[in-house]
Fold this sequence. Notes:
Elements: H1 13-27, H2 39-42, E1 45-50, E2 55-60, H3 73-82, E3 89-94, H4 107-112
Parallel strand pairs: 2-3
Antiparallel strand pairs: 1-2
Amino acid sequence: MDGSVPPPSALPKAELDRITDDLVAQFKTVFDPEIPVDVYELGLIYKVDINDEGFVDVEMTLTAPGCPVAGEMPGWVETAARKVRGVTGAKVNLVFDPPWTPARMSDEAKLELNML
Length: 116
């Protein structure tokens, strides 16, 4: 890395903010079937990058590597991302580093699961 600052996004800030908000709203429609909380509030979405053309790259994890829906949940998240106006495509990469822990959950998720 040469330490240079990346160029600003070609997407206007207002549009980038809207896409980001809409992505969060869509991620909140995807639930882990074993836990009655959405993947966003569970803290399973680690990183979301939106490029200048509107393509979305998502890094997410699962509550456990042996999760029964490990093969399906990334597709659910990808489908949710593609529903957002302005998103031209999406790819979800499953990562397990850092491992997920309940500490990643939002207060809303902890409240839903009676953990507060």
